[in-house]
Specification:
By secondary structure, the chain is α/β, with parallel strands linked by helices. The chain contains 9 helices and 29 strands. The protein has 3 domains: 90 residues, Immunoglobulins (Immunoglobulin-like, Sandwich), CATH 2.60.40.10; 78 residues, Immunoglobulin-like, CATH 2.60.40.10; 258 residues, TIM Barrel (Alpha-Beta Barrel), CATH 3.20.20. The chain is globular and about 80 Å long.
């Protein structure tokens, strides 16, 4: 009996450890150096990300200030004032959640700000015309600065403030393709402001520009499927229509690429075909396995399938029930089979956010009154649940997400890109990108702007050439 109880206790402990959140940080130090607070902490093997919060004398609570990957263990905070006490709080984000916090305090002596350095005058590296409506201005980055971007119609004219960014890039969407604007930039650190950079004109040292149209599909059916009780929903198309699309893509010289291919290329790896195109498929319906996957293999093409986690779980738990469903979904085993073939790339459509209205939110979007602090934990929880399922059933780490119902905001983009996703798919929104083709400047890589893609929803009786400018 004792041996049985000991074994039971061991098994319970083992099961408990399997889903255990990361341990709290063991050390957090803050020192005043050159008028700035330098925060340091110990490396943790459990960390995918370190999350730092600060409470200043003017704040009622801690506020998020910084995320770093598992390799960077320091942060320089220039936004501190003389004579104030600042509290810092560090948490570790791992595979199974977020750790408890470790805190440290710094009191800044009066007059300490006088030793602070003014940021260097920025250097504009390039100004690239990404498409007829957008110029991308790239600046040599400095630590912990924001950047003020100014624009003028002439080199020596009056410059108007366009935007302030915390990334060293400006995507200036001016909707005027006939003007080659001039740009200047100022770096700002706390109350310290640099001189303006030298002006540079659109076309100065331009980077490599390429475009990727993205198509959005949902369900694929035959007449036999409809006779068997499958619903022909709003975005369903017939399988023979999909084959006609694939034939058109082949005949017109396009090469399908995956989301992973695009991410790698923007990270400076590999090559891009002359005419790339991405096929995305939302939800994870059974028709993908039965109808679309065989056609993709036939034409040697790829598609990125964004799946709804809870729907896949339900189908996996009761696959036989699909014969009575109007909208059956794939199982995890079927997804693994498609993934291993190389024709289907599995990405996320969220784990449990795919509801049109829940808690005042539509899908994975924010609601009125949300802040990064209030919405980020929701996104992190869903990403962590998605990551566990991807690792368990597919042996993969999710890097991309398609927004349910294509609903998004800049705040939701910022939150989801902090969870671990590198790239987000939205819908056909000209306020997101002015051109239906997604244009990129390779040298700018992936950032909060470039990482959100516009895509066209393929509807019945509107063939693929309706959506793509050739």
């Amino acid at each position: 009996m004792k041996r049985f109880l000991a074994l039971l206790l061991f098994v319970c402990c083992l099961l408990s450890a399997c889903g255990q959140k990361p341990s709290a940080p063991q050390e957090l130090t803050v020192s005043l150096e050159n008028g700035a607070a330098v925060v340091r902490w110990q490396h943790s093997d459990e960390a995918k990300t370190y999350r730092l919060y600060r409470r200043s004398p003017e704040d009622d609570d801690f506020k998020f200030i910084f995320d770093s990957d598992g390799d960077k263990v320091t942060y320089t905070d220039r936004y501190i004032g003389s004579g104030g006490t600042y509290l810092y709080q560090l948490r570790i984000i791992g595979e199974n959640g977020v750790s408890e916090a470790f805190e440290s305090t710094l009191t800044v002596p009066t007059g300490a700000s006088e030793s602070r350095k003014t940021p260097d005058t920025p250097v504009i590296e390039s100004v690239t015309a990404m498409d007829p409506y957008t110029a991308v201005v790239a600046v040599t980055p400095q630590e912990n600065c924001t950047y003020e971007f100014l624009r003028s119609g002439t080199r020596d004219g009056d410059y108007t403030h366009v935007a302030t960014r915390d990334e060293p890039f400006l995507y200036d969407e001016h909707r005027d393709g006939d003007v080659d604007w001039f740009y200047r930039v100022r770096a700002v650190s706390g109350e310290f402001r640099s001189d303006l950079s030298e002006p540079q004109k659109t076309g100065y040292e331009p980077g490599e520009v390429f475009g990727v149209p993205v198509l959005m599909y949902h369900e694929f059916v035959t007449q036999q499927d409809l006779d068997d009780g499958i619903a022909f929903d709003e975005y369903a198309i017939y399988a023979d229509e999909f084959e006609q699309d694939l034939q058109w893509i082949e005949d017109n010289g396009y090469t399908t690429i995956t989301t992973a291919h695009l991410i790698d290329y923007l990270d400076g790896k590999g090559e891009m075909p002359e005419k790339p195109l991405i096929i995305t498929i939302d939800d994870g319906k059974y028709g993908v396995y039965k109808r679309a996957w065989p056609l993709l293999k036939k034409y040697k093409m790829t598609a990125s399938l964004s799946i709804i986690g809870y729907e896949i779980d339900n189908a996996t738990a009761a696959p036989d029930a699909r014969s009575k469903s109007e909208a059956p979904y794939c199982t995890w085993q079927e997804l693994a089979e498609m993934s291993e073939s190389g024709a289907i790339e599995i990405i996320s459509h969220t784990d449990k956010q795919h509801y049109f209205l829940h808690d005042g939110r539509c899908g994975a979007n924010t609601k009125e009154g949300d802040t990064l602090a209030s919405f980020l934990p929701i996104a992190q929880k869903d990403y962590a649940d998605t990551a566990r399922s991807f690792k368990k059933y597919l042996g993969l780490t999710p890097t991309s997400m398609a927004y349910p119902y294509s609903r998004r905001t800049e705040l939701s983009d910022e939150a989801w890109l902090k969870t671990g996703f590198r790239l987000l798919y939205a819908g056909d929104d000209e306020n997101l990108r002015y051109s239906s083709t997604n244009y990129f400047v390779r040298e700018a890589g992936l950032n909060r702007i470039s990482a959100v893609l516009r895509r066209m929803a393929r509807e019945e009786k509107y063939p693929v050439d309706y959506y793509i400018d050739t």
